[in-house]
Amino acid sequence: MPDGSSSDLSRYVLAPTAEEIADTKVLFYAPYAAALTEENLRKHGYVVTIQAALLRALREHGLDVTPASDPEILFGPFEFDYVFAYNILAPIEGRELLIPSIAAFRGVPFLGAPAPVRALSEDKTLAKALAASLGIEVAEHRVINPLRTTDIALPGRWILKPRNGVMSREITLIEGEADWPAALAGAAHPRNEGRDFIAEAFVPGLNLTVPVVEGFPLQAFPVYMEQGEPRNNILTATGKDGRTSDYASEPYSGPGAAEASAAAARLAGALAPFDYARFDFRFDPERGRLVFLEFNIVCAAGPANVVAKAAAARGVDYKALIGHIFTRSLRRQRLEL
User: Fold this and answer.
1) Residue 58 in contact with residue 326, Cβ under 8 Å?
2) Given the DSSP bridges, would you call strands 25-29 and 64-68 parallel, antiparallel or unpaired?
3) In angstroms, what CA-CA distances link 79 with 24, 265, 274?
4) Which of 26, 251, 273, 319 has the greatest CB tally within 10 Å of its CB?
């Protein structure tokens, strides 16, 4: 498998035509899209930086783009021809399904997979069920509601995390049975609004992630290794959003990479169409064991994120990448592919 330094993919890149640019009014919907200010950049850093980069890349293609953060724009008079939504931080259950459902009701193309497929990205247990059905190993896991389950104490090491959502928030490592009461109490905190959590048997080793962008050959992009906190290599929210230094990513072609790439290709084939996504795994080098964790459709796609880094390693710069994702998404929904 290529190591990320060759195999130029620029010949596959799509870009909007002059006619498509003239005929397509784009709604760019994201939490801070209407207020990409220096103040919000200081407060929220990571997500504001990504949104600003996405908005700039779309406009660099000459597209008429309206940024918006107020959800009311989704329900009132609608004069848009495409919805480009970066909605990973919407504070609601079902956030993955919101934009696809509304856009489908409006009859306009939108970024990402349709709502039924996005449900698999929303729910980590459904994602694992899909992976298992394709013969991809998943760790032992179970759903726990911390408001109803207070007396569980499983032996061994476990990861407790929200059943839905991204960004590695509210993750707790449970080292043994004695840690369960405190972990459950933390999950039951009012900030979690009674949401379900998933307990997943801890798998030691490497974090491997595989970016996939439709319109490029499957397995075209390098696998990336993500480095987390030093003790157990767990990815943290603070590391991912740049508030702490315990996160890094780099191309990886060592043991487990080929297996992760092949597993991601199988998952991508079952999920298509979805425009772009990343597929996350843990690989235990001592046992040669690859375990699927989750996938994220319409994942973080700033210039420093793995999707853009992987594309750049194959000769596709950031503006070209975002233009390609938009153009292919628009054409497939207008039945022009």
Assistant:
1) yes
2) parallel
3) 10, 37, 24
4) 26
Q: Where are the beta strands (DSSP E) in the chain?
A: 25-29, 64-68, 82-85, 141-144, 158-162, 172-174, 197-201, 206-213, 224-227, 248-251, 276-284, 289-297
Identify whether residues 130 and 145 lie together within a single domain: no
27 neighbors 106 (Cβ within 8 angstroms): no
| CATH code: domain of residue 115 | 3.30.470.20
Question: Within this chain, do residues 76 and 155 fall inside the same structural domain, yes or no?
Answer: no
Position 75, amino acid: F
Of the residues 179, 201, 223, the one at which a domain ends: 201
Interval 32-55: pLDDT, tens: 888 887 787 777 677 888 999 999
pLDDT in tens, 81-113: 999 998 755 556 777 888 899 999 999 999 999
Structure tokens at 152: 């569980």
> Which residues neighbour 256 within 8 Å (Cβ) at sequence distance 6 or greater?
206, 208, 281, 283, 285, 288, 290
How many structural domains does the chain have? 2
Task: Answer yes or no: do 211 and 302 share one domain.
Answer: yes
300 & 251 share domain: yes
User: Which domain range does residue 156 map to?
Assistant: 141-201
Whole-structure pTM value: 0.92
